[in-house]
C-alpha cells in the first residue's frame, strides 16, 4: 500500500487541457536548469527589485514633500501635471508587480484608485494586472518548472504542486480563484502555464472573472485608506 501511494505521489502533474505532453515536474530545481532555458532570471529579478524599490522610496519622499498625501486637491493637481505618462507608468508598475512579486499587489492596486479615482484607477488596475497575468502564463509555459521555482521559491512551488495534484478540476478551481479577492491568483496563473491550460479558457477567466476580484479588493481598500489613514 505504501509503495503504491509513493508511486502515485511521484507522478508529474497533468495538464487540464492536453496540448503537448507535459514535461516531468518531479525532481530538484537547479540554477543550471534556469540558465539552460536561456533566461537569466536572477539578473532580471535583482534589477527590477532595485529599480522598483528605489522608485517607491523616492516617490513616497516626494509625495510627502509636495503634500499630495494630505490633500485631495494637491493630489488632483499633481495627477494633471503627469498627463498621459502617469497612467502609463502606473500600468507598467502593475505589470511588474504581477510578474516579479516585489511589492504586494494590493498596495499598488489600492494606490491606483486613491491616485486616479475609483473609475480610472480600477481600469488601470485591470489592464496592468491582466497583462501581467498573461505574461506569467506564457513565461511558465515556455520556461517551465525551473523558472517558476526560481520566481516563487522552491518551497512554495512544492506546496502548490501538492495541492494541484489533489485538485482534479484545476481549470474550474482556477476560475473560482479569479473572482476571490484574496486568492493567490498570480501564482495560479503560473501553474496554468505549467499545466498548459487551454489559452481560450485562461483568457476568459482573466478578462471576465478577474476584474470582479480587482474591483472588490481595490474599492474596499480605497475606502479604508481614505477613511482611516488619509482622512479625506
From TrEMBL:
Keyword Membrane listed: yes
The name this protein goes by in its record: TVP38/TMEM64 family membrane protein
Main localization category: membrane
Membrane topology: Multi-pass membrane protein
Region of interest (Disordered), residue spans: 1-23
Biased composition (Basic and acidic residues): 1-20
Organism name: Peptoniphilus equinus
Residue intervals of the VTT domain: 103-220
A family per Pfam: VTT_dom
Amino acid at each position: 500500500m505504501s509503495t503504491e501511494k509513493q508511486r502515485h505521489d511521484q507522478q508529474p502533474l497533468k495538464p487540464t487541457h492536453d496540448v503537448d505532453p507535459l514535461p516531468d515536474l518531479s525532481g530538484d530545481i537547479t540554477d543550471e536548469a534556469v540558465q539552460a532555458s536561456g533566461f537569466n532570471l536572477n539578473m532580471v529579478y535583482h534589477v527590477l527589485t532595485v529599480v522598483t524599490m528605489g522608485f517607491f522610496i523616492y516617490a513616497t519622499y516626494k509625495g510627502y514633500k509636495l503634500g499630495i498625501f494630505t490633500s485631495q486637491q494637491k493630489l488632483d493637481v499633481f495627477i494633471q501635471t503627469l498627463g498621459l505618462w502617469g497612467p502609463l507608468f502606473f500600468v507598467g508598475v502593475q505589470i511588474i508587480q504581477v510578474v516579479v512579486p516585489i511589492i504586494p499587489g494590493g498596495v499598488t492596486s489600492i494606490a491606483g484608485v486613491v491616485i486616479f479615482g475609483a473609475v480610472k484607477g480600477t481600469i488601470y488596475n485591470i489592464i496592468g494586472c491582466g497583462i501581467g497575468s498573461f505574461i506569467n502564463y506564457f513565461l511558465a509555459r515556455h520556461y517551465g518548472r525551473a523558472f517558476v521555482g526560481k520566481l516563487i521559491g522552491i518551497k512554495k512551488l512544492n506546496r502548490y504542486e501538492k495541492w494541484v495534484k489533489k485538485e482534479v478540476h484545476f481549470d474550474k478551481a482556477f476560475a473560482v480563484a479569479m473572482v476571490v479577492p484574496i486568492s493567490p491568483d498570480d501564482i495560479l496563473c503560473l501553474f496554468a502555464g505549467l499545466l498548459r491550460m487551454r489559452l481560450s479558457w485562461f483568457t476568459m477567466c482573466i478578462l471576465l472573472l478577474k476584474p470582479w476580484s480587482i474591483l472588490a479588493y481595490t474599492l474596499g481598500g480605497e475606502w479604508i485608506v481614505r477613511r482611516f489613514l488619509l482622512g479625506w
